[in-house]
């Protein structure tokens, strides 16, 4: 009888164990929901500094939201992003943009590449002075003195890998980004740069340490606001 | 004699009607105009709803483009089709069309100018739509703001660009006719069948097409989607996506929210849920579920299926897949493929993992994706793309592993299968 009770109890116990759901506990957070993003746009030590993926943490909300929409709606072409975002709503993407814009981040000290003094001079001129002869504004005129972007729509230029920057310049120059269908100040500017200047810029920028925040909105010169009005809007751009 | 009588009668009849109409009109005019305006508004509303059910916008809008202005390219083995502008623009849209022209396209598959339409436009299914519903959709399209947009012409390969061939195709494969109710079945079932077979045009994807691009039969037996690189599973077979033994509520949940505790819509189906199905009324969703449940076959073999012993080579191949699984998949899908209900789908016992075609599973690993944002699941969890993280050989191993772990049983997948599953994304 005793044996019977023991067997009965242990059976009951093991059945109860088996019946317990072994389902995973999934946190009800945005951090969990954006795992598909952070596999690539995550910690720099996991994806590597030489990888293609740009930093998105700490970029301005409006910029991130516009890019998400552009990828989803075929205005900015990058296949993995287009597939991932295909069925997400504007509201959800706005929430995701806000999450990354306000995500605290620590960026490791980058390694500078060896550059000649002429190259460095070229870059510093372009970044901080521009070239009025060619109607080229300084990069910092739009992207902020700290090159961390301007709220809410202008992206920062730091924390972006060499390969990514080179690809973006190529896209701006040859119509690959936005498919050349929307008049855009950046494609006009990129087309005025020489290949030598582009090469120098994409070598110099990844060597700068990432720090600080985007500049406050309203700091853009009226001239830049006029030239870049298509970017400075949350209105839906229809092709 | 009879000719002149007819002439007299025609003329007098018009006059009599005109006089009577004038007399009546004086007293009724104001009331009638009002009534017909609201009637028209109701018809437009109904048309908007039906256009959702048929997901007209899905094809007649290019990515990021103006709704219904067309321009979307559909790649098929017969060439590239470009969807037309169906906004009421006089020059580039259907501004000059009448309700009869629209009916001719929907029901007979013929354009306003008499050209035969290619079955990339699913008139082979839309022919089942009633005249009343077609008229409502037309009224809705007429109510849209006209968009002037000229789209590129089709680029159809020879000899498929021949209208005579298309005529022969129609004789062979096109069966014209409005849906006929099966009186032995309930009204709800018939409504579901009408939606699934007609406007919903489910068999445009869920049936294999033959070399001439015609659906092999009108049963939803599954097939690779033409020009899409996705496999639309059978809605009948219990080994695929048949829902013969699902509760009605679960079918409704999947189709209207995109996810249930053990299933999730992916690829083109996720898009259909977002664009179309989630907007349907609860009654229509239920009707479709009732119909789909009725065509699904039960699975008597499910419990007794025996898995054969594996040769040592296979065992080793799967063991390598297990390592990949532990590294990349286990965090979300669990140690024993149990998943997290309604969040991350279980892989153990998951039919889209084990079904004959591994295409969708491979594509999910390559490209990842989110289920659709819907009212019922507005902030979905998602799956990352792995195409640029792990190599084809490892994707092949891990897909083979999940097809054969935890009681699952499916064919092995090779790196070549993975490579051949790429393509035609956008």
Automatic annotation (TrEMBL), chain A:
Q: Which residues form the Cytochrome c domain?
A: 14-104, 125-209
Question: What start and end residues bound the annotated signal peptide?
Answer: 1-18
Q: InterPro entries given for it?
A: Cyt_c-like_dom, Cyt_c-like_dom_sf, Cytochrome_c4-like, Cytochrome_c_Oxidase_Subunit
PTM section of the record: Binds 2 heme c groups covalently per subunit.
Entry GO CC = periplasmic space
Q: Which Gene3D superfamilies has this protein been placed in?
A: Cytochrome c-like domain (1.10.760.10)
Q: Which UniProt keywords apply?
A: Heme, Iron, Metal-binding, Signal
The molecular function terms of the Gene Ontology recorded here are:
electron transfer activity; heme binding; iron ion binding
Binding of heme c 1, residues = 37, 40-41, 81
What this protein is called in its record is Cytochrome c553
Q: What is the source species?
A: Nitrosomonas halophila
Source taxonomy lineage?
Answer: Bacteria, Pseudomonadati, Pseudomonadota, Betaproteobacteria, Nitrosomonadales
Automatic annotation (TrEMBL), chain B:
- Which residues are heme c 3-binding? 329, 332-333
Superkingdom in the source lineage: Bacteria
| GO molecular function ontology, one term from the record | oxidoreductase activity, acting on CH-OH group of donors
| One GO cellular component, as annotated | membrane
Kindly indicate where the leader peptide sits in this chain: none
Instruction: Give the PROSITE patterns listed for this entry.
Output: CYTC
Which keywords, in A-to-Z order, does the entry hold?
Heme, Iron, Metal-binding
Q: Which amino acids does the record list as binding heme c 2? A: 202, 205-206
Q: Which InterPro entries does its entry note?
A: Cyt_c-like_dom, Cyt_c-like_dom_sf, Cytochrome_c-type_DH, Membr-bd_ADH_cyt_c
Quote the protein name from its UniProt record.
Answer: Cytochrome c, mono-and diheme variants
Originating species = Nitrosomonas halophila
- What is the phylogenetic placement of the source species in the record? Bacteria, Pseudomonadati, Pseudomonadota, Betaproteobacteria, Nitrosomonadales
């Amino acid at each position: 009888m005793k044996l019977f009770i023991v067997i009965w109890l242990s059976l009951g116990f093991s059945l109860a164990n088996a019946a317990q759901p072994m389902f995973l506990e999934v946190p009800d957070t945005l951090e969990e929901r954006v795992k598909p993003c952070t596999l690539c746009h995550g910690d720099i030590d996991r994806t590597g500094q030489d990888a293609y993926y740009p930093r998105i943490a700490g970029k301005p909300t409006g910029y991130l939201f516009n890019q998400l929409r552009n990828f989803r709606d075929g205005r900015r072409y990058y296949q993995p992003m287009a597939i991932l975002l295909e069925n997400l709503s504007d509201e959800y993407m706005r929430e995701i943009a806000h999450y990354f814009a306000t995500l605290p981040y620590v960026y490791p000290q980058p390694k500078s590449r060896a550059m000649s003094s002429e190259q460095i001079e070229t870059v510093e001129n372009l970044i901080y002075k521009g070239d009025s002869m060619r109607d080229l504004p300084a990069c910092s005129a739009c992207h902020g003195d700290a090159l961390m972007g301007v709220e809410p729509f202008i992206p920062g230029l730091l924390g972006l890998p060499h390969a990514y920057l080179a690809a973006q310049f190529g896209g701006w120059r040859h119509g690959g980004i936005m498919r050349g269908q929307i008049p855009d100040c950046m494609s006009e500017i990129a087309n005025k740069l020489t290949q030598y200047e582009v090469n120098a810029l994409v070598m110099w920028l990844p060597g700068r340490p990432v720090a600080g925040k985007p500049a406050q909105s309203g700091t853009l010169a009226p001239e830049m606001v006029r030239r870049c009005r298509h970017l400075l809007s949350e209105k839906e751009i229809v092709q | 004699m009879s000719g002149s009588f007819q002439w007299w009668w025609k003329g007098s009849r018009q006059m009599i009607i005109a006089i009577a109409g004038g007399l009546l009109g004086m007293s009724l005019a104001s009331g009638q105009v009002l009534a017909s305006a609201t009637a028209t508004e109701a018809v437009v509303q109904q048309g908007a709803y039906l256009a959702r059910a048929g997901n007209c916008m899905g094809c007649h809008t290019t990515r990021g483009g103006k709704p219904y202005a067309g321009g979307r390219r559909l790649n098929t083995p017969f060439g590239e089709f470009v969807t037309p502008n169906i906004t009421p623009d006089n020059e580039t849209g259907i501004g000059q069309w009448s309700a009869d022209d629209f009916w001719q396209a929907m029901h007979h598959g013929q354009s306003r100018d008499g050209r035969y339409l290619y079955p990339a436009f699913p008139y082979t299914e839309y022919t089942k739509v009633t005249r009343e519903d077609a008229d409502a959709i037309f009224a809705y399209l007429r109510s849209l703001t006209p968009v002037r947009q000229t789209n590129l012409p089709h680029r159809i390969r020879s000899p498929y660009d021949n209208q005579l061939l298309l005529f022969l195709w129609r004789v062979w494969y096109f069966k014209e006719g409005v849906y006929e109710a099966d009186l032995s079945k309930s009204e709800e079932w018939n409504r579901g069948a009408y939606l699934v077979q007609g406007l919903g045009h489910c068999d445009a994807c869920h049936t294999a097409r033959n070399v001439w691009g015609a659906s092999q039969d009108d049963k939803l037996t599954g097939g690779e989607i033409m020009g899409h690189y996705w496999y639309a599973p059978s809605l009948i077979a219990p080994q695929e996506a048949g829902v013969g033994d699902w509760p009605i509520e679960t079918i409704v949940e999947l189709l209207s929210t995109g996810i249930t505790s053990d299933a999730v819509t992916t690829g083109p189906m996720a898009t259909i849920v977002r664009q179309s199905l989630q907007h349907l009324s609860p009654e229509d969703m239920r009707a479709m579920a009732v119909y789909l449940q009725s065509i699904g076959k039960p699975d008597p073999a499910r419990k007794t299926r025996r898995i054969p012993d594996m040769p040592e080579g296979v065992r080793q191949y799967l063991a390598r897949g297990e390592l990949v699984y532990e590294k990349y998949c286990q965090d979300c899908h669990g140690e024993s493929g149990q998943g997290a209900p309604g969040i991350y789908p279980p892989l153990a016992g998951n039919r889209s993992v084990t079904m004959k075609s591994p295409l969708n599973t491979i594509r999910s690993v390559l490209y990842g994706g989110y289920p659709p944002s819907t009212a019922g699941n507005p902030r979905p969890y998602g799956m990352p793309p792995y195409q640029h993280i792990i190599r084809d050989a490892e994707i092949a191993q891990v897909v083979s592993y999940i097809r054969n772990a935890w009681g699952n049983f499916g064919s092995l997948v090779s790196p070549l299968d993975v490579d051949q599953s790429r393509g035609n994304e956008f």
